[in-house]
Design a protein that fits this description.
This protein is α/β, with parallel strands linked by helices. The protein is 31% helix and 24% strand. It has twelve helices and 14 strands. The strands form two sheets. It has an eight-stranded mixed sheet, with helices on both faces. It has a six-stranded mixed sheet with strand order 10-9-14-13-12-11. It is elongated and about 75 Å long. The mean pLDDT is 95.
Length: 421
């Protein structure tokens, strides 16, 4: 999915450009993405494509066009020096005019009209670093439906605008940001303490630029958590809404009922990944994952494999499924028991699946289970002298009245004296 540059009419005459990326269906709520000090570079364009996959019509205006058109810098020392030179000459007042023009342009596009919640034509703002500060200003001045700011610089010096921010807003800060010290973050947090529609999130240990995978400062855990919170903000404010439960159920149907590899892959993004955590099996990217599904998963599970749902949690961009997974070990199961010959034993285990979505498609799956319990049940691990259990783990998951602490030899020592008598 690749976008292209388009012209945006400027408020003071003429035009400037912005990078436009469209969702798969061609329509959706509008999202203005605001650049770092490095211009609308590869990282920003990739971010636009990423949010287009999430279902938004994304436009990243060239905010440096009054200084130099189409600035596109990397992160070397020389390029960084150029970027700070642009920042030093940047006109924030004109920037508000250009953001307002960008919002108006998005709202006027047929792809955006009537695509928000309740048929509203809505646009949100999202920005990084310099763009994070601009997203904050957009929330105050540009009539956006929502705003998300990533490590916005010098927001603590713009707190006089706080009462103008009426739209739902989320502010993301790194706990180890050299450009936004925690003293500044605390000032921001205190200023918005009585504003329930403004959330301030801090990611411990995360540096400046933690959400940019093109930079050495990228922190995948912090970026993932911040993205989920941003998607929750955008979905909750203006949509689009997707039935994630149904999407996941259909994925499982193709995996375990019809055993159709191509149909399974069709429920996923272009480059998905799956990781079965205990055995590190799965695949990254379409080609590898298709190979895995075809040869080692979809057509390799025992015929009596069953998934018994226990609980399900649905968020803005993921589903968490808690289930009982059971089967008869009548063949080598590459993804769960690689290299272990069939034992004919029945296996029943608790299993948790965390499924992340990007728009209406699955992006990745993280699957967890207790491998020791599996090995005990097929008889290749002796639980006699080990703190592990077999099928009892599934039984207790379904019935909390089953005994607890049976593996703890010292459990009896903590019993009250009267109980011991």
């Amino acid at each position: 999915m690749a976008g292209d540059f388009i012209d945006i009419p400027a408020a003071d005459g003429g035009a400037f450009q912005g990078y436009l990326a469209l969702p798969e269906g061609g329509k959706g709520p509008g999202l203005m993405i605001l650049q770092e000090i490095f211009g609308v570079n590869e990282a920003i364009r990739a971010t636009c494509d990423y949010f287009a996959e999430e279902g938004y019509v994304v436009l990243a205006p060239d905010m440096f066009h009054r200084l130099e058109r189409r600035v596109d810098l990397g992160y070397s020392d020389d390029e960084r020096a150029r970027a700070f030179d642009f920042l030093g000459r940047f006109d924030f007042a004109k920037a508000v005019e250009d953001m307002t023009a960008t919002v108006a342009h998005l709202k006027g596009m047929d792809a955006v009209k009537g695509q928000g919640k309740g048929g509203a034509t809505q646009v949100a703002a999202l920005g990084y670093c310099l763009g994070g500060a601009l997203a904050y200003q957009a929330a105050a001045h540009c009539g956006v439906a929502a705003a998300a700011s990533y490590y916005g610089v010098q927001i603590e010096k713009q707190l006089h605008l706080k009462d103008r921010i009426e739209c739902p807003t989320v502010l993301h800060f790194g706990g180890a940001d050299e450009h936004v010290p925690m003293e500044a973050v605390e000032q921001v947090r205190e200023a918005f303490a009585d504003k329930d529609h403004v959330l301030v999130n801090v990611y411990e240990g995360a540096p400046h630029g933690f959400a940019n995978r093109f930079r050495d400062s990228y922190d995948k855990a912090a970026a993932g958590m911040a993205h989920s919170r941003t998607i929750a903000l955008l979905r909750g404010t203006m949509g689009p809404g997707y039935d994630l439960e149904h999407l996941w159920d259909m994925h499982c149907y193709y995996e375990f009922a019809t055993r159709d590899v191509d149909a399974t892959m069709a429920t996923m993004v272009a480059q998905p990944y799956v990781n079965h955590i205990p055995t590190m099996t799965g695949g990254v990217g379409y080609t590898e994952l298709h190979r895995f599904y075809k040869n080692h998963f979809v057509n390799a599970n025992p015929d009596d494999t069953a998934l018994i749902p226990v609980s399900r949690t649905v968020g803005a961009d993921r589903v968490v499924d808690e289930m009982i997974f059971e089967f008869t070990h009548d063949r080598e199961i590459d993804w769960m028991l690689p290299g272990v010959a069939p034992t004919g034993k029945r296996v029943r285990i608790p299993l948790v699946a965390i499924i992340n979505f990007r728009g209406p498609k699955l992006y990745h799956e993280h699957i967890y289970w207790d491998q020791a319990s599996v090995l005990v049940q097929i008889g290749v691990l002796d639980a006699k002298d080990l703190p592990t259990a077999g099928m009892a783990t599934a039984e207790k998951m379904l019935d909390e009245t089953q005994p607890s602490n049976t593996l703890m030899e010292r459990w009896a020592e903590s019993a009250p004296a009267e109980a011991a008598e």
